[in-house]
Amino acid sequence: MFIYKLVFENFGVYRGRQEIDFSVSKESPIVLFGGKNGAGKTTLLNGLQFVLYGKRAANIGRTSADHEEFLIEAVHREESDDGESLYQKRKAGVEIEFEAVYDGELARFYVTRSWEKSGSESLTNFPEKLTVFQNGLPSEFLTKNWAEVMEEILPHEISSLFLFDGEKIDQLDRKGMVNNRFNAFIMGYLEEQGVATHFDALLSDNESQVKHLDMIPVECVVRNIATGSLCRRLGVEDGLDLEPPTFEFFLKNDELHDPMINEYHIASFGWATPAEVESMKVQTFRVNEILSKLFADGGMILVDFKLEFGRFSDQLLLGDEFTPDGCRLWDTDTREKLDKDRFRQGLGGVVEAYEEVALRLGVDLEAPIAA
Ligand code: 5GP
Questions:
Q1: Whole-number Cα distances in Å, 341 to 188, 282, 324, 350
Q2: In CA terms, which of 91, 158, 162, 315 is 20 to 30 Å from 234?
């Protein structure tokens, strides 16, 4: 997807009709959009999401009332001549011109969304109008089915991975630091409790030193509560307590989407010896015991998690990492999700949740790192 132009008309801080040209050349391949607070950087991003996704845009609430309020609030307000009062324009809109592959072909799209205060002065009467042009011609079909068409071009669920601002980059950057320090804490704690791991030392905010393992291409998952793929596969109730906890093996293979496997597959394909399989199970359950208690003391339920192991001379060590990216953690009282599901389900507040988990366990994210 390549964006050529964004046009705002009386949208937020943008007064009248403002065109922003995003075309680039080989010599100048990037467009940077900067400005002081209040200059319209966030509005630009909001407008971009809104023109593409309408009421499903991430910056708008979930209900029709939220959508209506968004339309009302987004209309530019201007001071009256005497500077005494603010009055709102009657019409606002956002337009975008972009190129994308749709139906197997590269096409140029022009999408306009506008809304206008009609008839009465009532603020609640802003019918929204959408028009879509393809390769210069208006298309009734695309206009009618725009939500589905956009799902093909850039699915809404993953759009937040592309349409984000500098603030989000800062947050994602912080997530690396939080996870690195959190993992160091958990690995250290597990070592203290007698679980052998590959972890050696925290080197910096974003680096850790570990032993080089010959990894077993298998993921070990323990579940204390049914949720996620277990519920999708078996149709069991989400949130069901599992007593005893259940255990699953998955093959580490992105192309095959990490399929579930059993001990016979591991033996037949030689991914690990029977002794290694037994050791992985024992160690994973031991980690479950240790960490379930640790998280419970911090007011959290360890719902499920994934571990990976590898060979180091004649030992089998816990490898990879242990962070909220690879486990599920719920608040004990409210069952609020404090893990990667916040990201998977578009709930927001991902880094904040990870920091909350670290805080509850007493992980000092600011502690100086020994040289
Ligand atoms: P599920 O099978 O329900 O998707 O995941 C079970 C648990 O294992 C969750 O805590 C999930 O975060 C973790 N998990 C499963 N596969 C992966 C993976 O490939 N990467 C990471 N980071 N975690 C995984």
A1: 25, 27, 9, 9
A2: 158
